Amino acid sequence: MAKRVLIVFVTACLLAACSSSRRGTSVSGSFSVYDKKAVACYYADKFNGRKTASGEKFSNSKYTAAHKKLPFGTKVKVTNKANDKSVIVTINDRGPFTRGRDIDLSKKAFMEITDNKNHGTLNVIIEVAK
Predict the structure, then answer these.
(1) Half-sphere exposure (Cβ direction) of 38: Cα atoms closer than 13 Å
(2) How far is CA 126 from the centre of its chain?
């Protein structure tokens, strides 16, 4: 009986350790700072379904971003400096092309790290996965 309880307990612990986080991508791993003084904004809904510069179809419900220089496929951790909330996104497009903005987040990613849903920009830290 004790052996069965132990097996059930170990199995439950292993399943809990392997379960996915509530987000599409968890905020963990090794990152190096890319830009400490970046400004993030988010895509307008009109871009849904359009092709990105990488050739992927854009969706505001995914964890993706546009950056002018980082290679496509780069995993980037974006942290809101005001509340320390972070999200990990994948670079799949080029932009933003508005002066003073450094990274364009999907709406889902942006809304996850903002406190003010009515403000379109955030001061963030950009870190790149090692």
Answers:
(1) 22
(2) 10
Residue pair 102/20 in contact by the 8 Å Cβ criterion: no
pTM beyond 0.90: the answer is: no
Give the C-alpha separation, 47 to 41, whole Å.
14
Q: 82, 72, 124, 74: which is closest to 101 by C-alpha?
A: 124
pLDDT (average), residues 53-60: 96
Residue 43: which of 69, 22, 61 has the closest Cα?
61
Residue 127 and residue 34 in contact, taking contact as beta carbons nearer than 8 Å: yes
The pLDDT, as a whole number, for residue 4 is 60
Give the C-alpha separation, 62 to 124, whole Å.
19
Q: Which residues pair with 40 in a beta bridge?
A: 103, 122
Mean per-residue pLDDT of the chain? 85
Q: pLDDT tens digits for 88-109?
A: 999 999 999 999 999 999 999 9
CATH 2.40.40.10 fits 22-129, yes or no: yes
Handedness of CA 106, 112, 114, 115 (dihedral sign): positive
